Amino acid sequence: MPELFDPITLRGVTFKNRVIVSPMCQYQAGPDGRVNDWHIVHYGSLALGGAGLMFVEATAVESRGRISERDLGLWSDEQVEGIARVVNFAHRWGTKIGVQLGHAGRKADVSEPIVAPSAIPFSEHYQKPVVLDEENLDAIERAFAAAAKRAVQAGFDVIEIHGAHGYLLHQFLSPLSNQRTDAYGGSPENRVRFPLRVVRAVREAVPDDMPVFIRVSGSEYSPDGYTMDDMILYCRAFLEAGVDVIDVSSGGNVPVAPKSYAGYQVPFADAIKRATGAVVASVGMLDDPLLADAVVQEGRADMVAVARGFLRDKHWAHTAARRLNKPVSVPQPYQRAY
C-alpha cells in the first residue's frame, strides 16, 4: 500500500505527497471579497510547509452565497488578480494549490436575501431563505461554472466543489433541508439532481487534465438525515459526472456539533472508498503523523487533509516527514533548520 509521503497522480497533476492543507475559512476579506495582506501572508506561509496540495478557503461563487461578509469570492473578474498572487507564490516554491468553490445557501450570514432548496432556516439565528426557482438554479449553476473559469485563469491546479457542512449543495442532498416536491426533492435520485448539474458545469468549465474534488459530509448525525447508502449513491453519481476525488468530512446541516476525536471521520471515507472504488481524502483531527500515515497505508483513504495541525505548525508536513523518517525538502532559506 502507498504511504503518506508517496506521490499520487490525478489526471494531469502529480502531487509530491498525499498531505492536503484542508480549506479553512479565514473571515479576513473585505466586502469586495478580494485577497488582502492577511491572505498573502497566511497562504504564503502554508505554501512553504511541504504539503502535496494546499487549498484556499471556501470561496463564494455569488455575493449572496458567502458564509460571512468577510469571505473570499470569485464571483467577479476583479477578484482574480489578487488570488492569482497567492497561486503564483505557491507555484514558485513547487506547491500545488486548489480552491474550494462554494455557496452557503441558507447558512449565508449576509445582509442580502438568502436562498435555499426549501424555506427552512438553519436555526433561529439565521434568515428564513427564499426557495430557489428554476431561474435562480440556472443562475447558481452558471455562477459555479464562471467561478471555475476564473480559478483556471488564476492558475489553480485543482478545484474542489463544496458539497458538505450544511451549505447549499449539501442542503439539496439532505431531507433535513430539502422538502421540495418537484424534480429536485423527494428521492435521493432527485435530491442529487442539482448538485450534479453543478458538478457537470464545473467539469465542463475546466481543462480535462485538471482534477476536480468534491467535499461531502459522510454523516449528518441525525436519524432524519440521509443514510450512508444515500451518500454512496450520491458519490457514484459525482464520479460518473467527472469528479476525481471524494473529500469526506461530516456534519454541518444541523446546529449541533458531533463528538470529535482523532480519526472520527475516517470510517466515512473508508466506507465510501470501499463501496465506490473512488480516490478519497479523509479529514478531521488527523494531525498525528503516525495516524495520518496509517490511514493511507491501511487503504482507508488515499490522501489526508489536515487543518488545525497546519494552523499550529505551518510546516506540519515537514514535521510529519521527520517523524516518519522521510526526506525533507525545504526552501533554501530554511535549510539550516533541518
UniProtKB/TrEMBL annotation:
UniProt cofactor(s): FMN
Pfam family, one: Oxidored_FMN
Keywords attached to this entry: Flavoprotein, FMN, NADP, Oxidoreductase
Domain NADH:flavin oxidoreductase/NADH oxidase N-terminal: from-to ranges: 3-325
Lineage: superkingdom: Bacteria
Gene3D superfamilies: Aldolase class I
PANTHER family cross-referenced by the UniProt entry: NADPH DEHYDROGENASE C23G7.10C-RELATED
Coiled-coil segments on the chain, per record: none
Protein name (record): NADPH2 dehydrogenase
Gene Ontology MF terms: FMN binding; NADP binding; NADPH dehydrogenase activity
Listed InterPro entries: Aldolase_TIM, OxRdtase_FMN_N, YqjM-like
